[in-house]
Amino acid sequence: MTLDWYPGIREACRHWQDAPMLQETFFALENAFSEENDACIDCAKAIVEVVCRIIIDELDSPVNSVKPKSTSPDFGEWVGSAVRVLKLGENRNKKFLKLVSQHHKLTSALGDLRNEAGPVSHGRDGFLEKLSSHHRRSAVLSADGIVAFLHHAYLEAELDYVRTREPYERFDHLHEVIDRHVAVSMEIEGDESPLLRFLLPGGDEITLAVEVSRLLYQLDRDAYVEALSAARSVGGNQTTESAALEEVEEADE
Length: 253
What we know:
single chain, elongated
């Protein structure tokens, strides 16, 4: 049986599968680790930083931002900001706060190991010996522990539904509430965009004017292509008929 040395990282990368840079870094980690290349230390540290940046961008408040202010934040700053934006330090449970503190120490140790031994980010003495598999596995396990800790805390956090980049499927439990209690109707007047009316509980309503093309494009690309093909055929016939009519009129003149 092959051991999975980074299940937490794998889970986080699966969750944010639409984040290209995270996927690229994860691909580099897998390759370096499988080839017993010390570069996996740099990759593991980079994945922690990318995950921290995703979490901070999702949860940071524009009014009271905790995002690092320096132009080149170090490893500890990214992790510290992620911990603050997740409000992990506000927990009054002493044992939990001790756990947070231990993850901070783990962060420092991983950063130090990468600075000393990571071969990718800085030039090294060309005759330095490779690290042992034990060192590489320890670094990856440390990064995995940090990522798992932050990712699971993020999954329990309250998101801003207006600006979140999380996919629609993430909020099935919320969609169910809306679908159960909100009705929708459509009105079409002349050549104007259809008007959708969302009837809210209590009698209020939300109205949205939306083009048919936009609705199809956003919801069903196959349906959009089918509608486009049908509309083009009608449009082409109309163009041909108009051209023929113009030719007849010119001949009469």
